[in-house]
Design goal:
14 strands; 19% strand; eight-stranded mixed sheet; alpha/beta; 359 residues; two-stranded antiparallel ribbon; 9 helices
């Protein structure tokens, strides 16, 4: 059944920001008698997978010389305790990272490729969970939306029973990049997946490695959502026409592959949370094609009850309190500035909280 979207305003009182998120309204159902409800698994923990290209990977600098841009952004946004992201890390939200910039991934050197930023410095592709803090981007001086997410979700778990982020993203990656095998998967004319691609070669096995780590820690991992930010590399007319089908094929693949880790072992219970790309002037990929891409992303979010989107353009007149844009401080003409990166992460968290994805 096609769901109905509603726009929800993210205010500073809610998540210290004015970003607007667009989510699907969950269907209403009658509650079963309490005696018939299944017992909650005390060892279950929530897991979210973060994937996409550079703005998900994290290409925002959190320092400029001696200036702490996180502290500066927190002051401007009316937030407290920036050191939780820059020093101690959010203990209740653990992140395992494996990512690389465009053209730097090599499937023959999963553990030895020095171009990769990974939380595990010795067995890079095995993964390792650490408190979520700065440095979990393209390199140790960069940040991504995981910071805003962790800050917004920090009180929803404890250090003893954390929420887990598994992040595998690569800058410049798309569904149809020329000259590289490292695209997100696109079926061939026979309906078959290529042998080497971002999902099968990097994302899926890295997720599996980290699920094993969570199990080793004594928990039962439950994947609650796949969080996606990608599209800049596919913002060309001929690619946009194929994007919805390609995205749908991959999301279906993900839900089938990880059904055993979904709630009730039903892959359809894994939410897909997309993020719109920047569609303002001065983009390297073009304002109009960005709008066209975002329209396709919205169509996909509308196509299923458990698809959602962080809609950064719901307000016709973005203000300093809700605008997401690339540029300084911290970003460039393709990558979000510090406040925007934080707000984007908070937008994903808003979808998670408002749609009870942690339940």
């Amino acid at each position: 059944m096609k769901s109905v979207n509603k726009l929800m305003s993210l205010t500073l009182a809610a998540l210290a920001m004015g970003l607007t998120a667009c989510t699907n309204t969950p269907a209403t159902s009658s509650k079963a008698p309490e005696s018939s409800e299944p017992e909650e698994d005390p060892n279950a923990v929530s897991v979210f997978v973060l994937s996409g290209q550079s703005n998900m990977e994290g290409n925002t600098s959190f320092k400029s010389g001696s200036t702490d841009l996180i502290a500066q952004a927190f002051e401007e946004m009316g937030l407290e305790d920036p050191e939780i992201l820059t020093e101690t890390g959010v203990e209740s939200v653990q992140t395992s990272l494996y990512c690389a910039g465009y053209g730097q991934l090599d499937h023959t050197k999963l553990d030895t490729n020095t171009q990769v930023n990974s939380t595990n410095k010795t067995e890079r592709f095995k993964g390792e969970f650490v408190p979520t803090k700065t440095g979990l981007g393209l390199n140790s001086s960069k940040m991504g939306p995981e910071l805003g997410m962790a800050y917004a979700l920090k009180d929803e778990a404890t250090a003893e029973k954390p929420i887990y982020f598994i992040k595998m993203a690569s800058g410049g990656s798309g569904f149809e990049q020329s000259g590289t095998d490292y695209n997100w998967p696109v079926k061939n004319a026979n309906g078959e997946w290529p042998e080497i691609n971002m999902y099968h070669t990097f994302c899926k096995p890295f997720i599996e490695n980290n699920l094993a780590l969570i199990k080793e820690a004594g928990w039962n991992p439950v994947i609650k959502g796949w969080l996606w930010h990608q599209g800049e590399s596919d913002s060309a007319t001929e690619k946009i026409a194929k994007y919805k089908q390609r995205l749908g094929d991959m999301v279906e693949l993900f839900r089938n592959d990880f059904a055993e880790y979904a709630k009730d072992e039903d892959g359809e219970n894994i939410a897909f949370v997309d993020g719109m790309i920047y569609q303002g002037s001065g983009t390297a990929w073009g304002a109009q094609t960005s709008k066209d891409m975002n329209a396709v992303k919205q169509e996909f979010a509308d196509s299923a009850d458990n698809n959602y989107i962080v809609d950064i353009y719901a307000n016709e007149e973005p203000t300093a309190e809700n605008e997401l844009k690339p540029g300084n401080p911290g970003g460039d003409n393709m990558h979000y500035n510090v406040k925007s990166s934080l707000r984007l992460g908070m937008g994903y968290a808003k979808v998670i909280l408002d749609n009870h994805l942690l339940d």
